[in-house]
Write a structure and sequence with these properties.
mainly alpha
C-alpha cells in the first residue's frame, strides 16, 4: 500500500476485527506463519466488512459489493476492500473469479433471495464461505491447486452450514432462515425448539460430510496446516455441542466452552490435520 501510515492503521483494524468478531478464527490465526498472518487478517477484513454491511442492511452495502465485483472483472474502483485486494495481489495470486462468486453470494442476500433445495443451499454456502476457503488457500499455497480449491471450498461450506445450524434462533428472531425450505418441510415444517431434532441430525450429517472432504485437503497446503486444522476442529466441535445439547431442544446458540476450544486447537494444531 502506498501510504505507510494508512497501511498500518488498516492492518491494526484488520487484526482488531478478527479478534473481536471471530474469536475461533483468531485463535487459529495464532498458528499461522508470521509472514502470512497479517495478510490473512487483511483478507478476512475484506470478507467480514462486506458480509456485515449486507447483513446489517447498510446503505452502502450494494455499492461496496459492486465495486469489488467490478474489480474482479478488471475494472478499477475506489474502496477499502479493493485497496486491500490490490495490495494482496502483489504478493499472492488472488483468484478474481472466486471473489466474483463471493460477490454473487452477497448479492443474493441483498435482494433477500430464498433457498428452496439442498442444491441451492450448497451453492449459497459455496458463494458466501466456500469462496473464502478457496481464496485463503491461494494465500497459503497448495501443492495441488485443483484439488486444493475443491477441498478448501468444501471446508468453507462446512463452516457456513455450521453457522446456519448454530444461529437458527437468532436468524428466526430477525425473520430469516438459511435452511432449505424443501428440507424443512420434509422434516415436519417446524423450526421450533423441540421439533427439529430429525432436521438437525440430517443437516449435521451433511456438514460432517463436507468437513471430511475439507480436512482431507489440509495436507495439500504449503503453509498454515496447523492453523487450518485447528480452525476446522474448533468449528466442527460446534456440531458436537449441538448434539450434546439435544439437537435444539432449547432455543439459543450452542457455544463451545473456551477451554474446550483451546484443547481442540492444541490437539488439531499439533497434528496439522
Amino acid at each position: 500500500m502506498s501510504n505507510p501510515v494508512g497501511a498500518a492503521a488498516l492492518l491494526e483494524e484488520a487484526r482488531g476485527t478478527t479478534r473481536r468478531v471471530a474469536r475461533t478464527f483468531a485463535l487459529a490465526c495464532r498458528l499461522l506463519p508470521r509472514e502470512l498472518r497479517d495478510d490473512v487478517y487483511l483478507l478476512y477484513l475484506v470478507f467480514r466488512t462486506l458480509d456485515d454491511l449486507v447483513d446489517d442492511g447498510h446503505p452502502e452495502a450494494a455499492a461496496r459489493v459492486a465495486v469489488v465485483r467490478a474489480w474482479t472483472e478488471g475494472a478499477g474502483g475506489d474502496s477499502q476492500e479493493v485497496e486491500i485486494l490490490e495490495d494482496l495481489s502483489t504478493r499472492h495470486a488472488i483468484p478474481r473469479l472466486t471473489m466474483r462468486d463471493f460477490c454473487a453470494g452477497m448479492e443474493h442476500d441483498l435482494v433477500g433471495g430464498t433457498l428452496d433445495s439442498e442444491a441451492e443451499l450448497d451453492r449459497y454456502c459455496y458463494r458466501v464461505a466456500g469462496t473464502v476457503g478457496v481464496v485463503m488457500a491461494a494465500v497459503l499455497g497448495t501443492s495441488d491447486p485443483a484439488r486444493g480449491e475443491r477441498t478448501a471450498g468444501a471446508l468453507g461450506m462446512a463452516m457456513q452450514r455450521t453457522n446456519i445450524l448454530r444461529d437458527i434462533d437468532e436468524d428466526l428472531a430477525q425473520g430469516r432462515t438459511y435452511l432449505a425450505s424443501d428440507t424443512v418441510r420434509r422434516f415436519g415444517g417446524s423450526l421450533a425448539p423441540g421439533d427439529r431434532e430429525a432436521l438437525l441430525r440430517h443437516q449435521i450429517a451433511r456438514a460432517d460430510e463436507l468437513y471430511e472432504q475439507g480436512v482431507a485437503g489440509i495436507e495439500l497446503l504449503l503453509h498454515g496446516r496447523r492453523a487450518v486444522a485447528a480452525a476446522a476442529g474448533m468449528y466442527r466441535e460446534i456440531l458436537r455441542q449441538i448434539e450434546r445439547e439435544g439437537y435444539g431442544r432449547r432455543a439459543g446458540r450452542a457455544v463451545v466452552p473456551q477451554r474446550r476450544k483451546l484443547v481442540i486447537a492444541a490437539r488439531r494444531g499439533a497434528l496439522g490435520l
